[in-house]
Fold this sequence. Notes:
The chain has 2 helices and 5 strands; from the N terminus they run βββββαα. By secondary structure, it is of the alpha+beta class.
Amino acid sequence: MANKQQTIERICCVCRKLQPIDQMTRVVRVGGEFLVQTDKRLNGRGAHVCSACLQSPNLQKSLCRSFKTQLPATIFQQLTGK
Ligand SMILES: [Zn+2]
């Protein structure tokens, strides 16, 4: 691993492990709408998913549990489609 200062880590909502935030995808709820964060930071309630878990069969279940609601299918298409 490279020595990097200021490595920010977040807990992945699927595997529950701390991961470097720059390798994670953030899903945010802004108002009543769900968005996959790209480059700009979005304010709102968010959940982080590490890159490995984007392919996890538990992705959908874990994200819905994090937000305590169903997420639109388009969110999962965005998450897994890249
Ligand atoms: Zn994970």
